[in-house]
Amino acid sequence: MKPSDRSQDDTSPISFAVRATPRLPLALLAAAVFFASGVAHAGGCPEGKQGPTPFEPVTESSGDIKVHEYQRRDLGAERMAAEGHVLRARSISFGPGAVVQLHSHDNRPETAMMKHGTVTVFETNCQVSYPMREGVVYQSGIGDDHWVSNDTEETAVMLVVDILDTTE
């Protein structure tokens, strides 16, 4: 269905076709489609608030945290030939009061989107904490260290696609 074929009261998701090219392997296209299912906007440290965090980093995870891995794709078998790396898709649920400890994304770039609920993100290079709400997309890579807490009374669920170094 082309967007022009949709009626004004049609609430079904917009579908579109994408084609793999030598520069954009199928696995990366899958990650892009994973997050293109709705209208999302970028999250992160608010403009003008970059700088050392005043918060004491949390060094131990606590509470009800569940991780469900959906799929892995060996990137060594792709045209990019990233031996020892996989593209991984998973969900992470954070029960009320759960905290994920300080961790680095120097060797594990990720794109995450909140599917349900809200978590609070604390970055080591951000002077304030900020909420990550439903539909917000967040990216982490080199130099990004953060911890996350669920300060609400409901379970929050995040969808995550990352590149994992399996040689570590």
Structure write-up:
This protein has 168 residues and is mainly beta. 6% of the residues lie in helices and 38% in strands. It contains one helix and ten strands; from the N terminus they run αββββββββββ. It has one helix at residues 26-35, and strands spanning 41-42, 65-74, 85-94, 99-104, 110-116, 119-123, 130-132, 136-140, 145-149, 156-165. The chain starts with 25 loop residues before the first helix and ends with a strand. Mean pLDDT is 81; it is low at 1-41.
- Structural category is mainly beta
Major sheet: 6 strands, mixed
Listing every helix as H and every strand as E from the N terminus to the C terminus, the arrangement reads HEEEEEEEEEE
What is the distance, rounded to the nearest whole angstrom, between the alpha carbons of the first and last residues? 44 Å
Strand order of the largest sheet: 1-8-5-10-3-2
Task: Please work out how many helical segments DSSP would assign.
Answer: 1
* Estimated share of beta-strand residues: 35-45%
Uncertain ranges:
1-41
**Rg computed from alpha carbons, rounded to a whole number of angstroms:** 18 Å
Average pLDDT score: 81
Shape: globular
Helix share of residues?
Answer: under 10%
Number of strands: 10
Question: Mind sketching the topology for me?
Answer:
Blueprint: H1 26-35, E1 41-42, E2 65-74, E3 85-94, E4 99-104, E5 110-116, E6 119-123, E7 130-132, E8 136-140, E9 145-149, E10 156-165
Parallel strand pairs: 1-8
Antiparallel strand pairs: 2-3, 3-10, 4-9, 5-8, 5-10, 6-7, 6-9
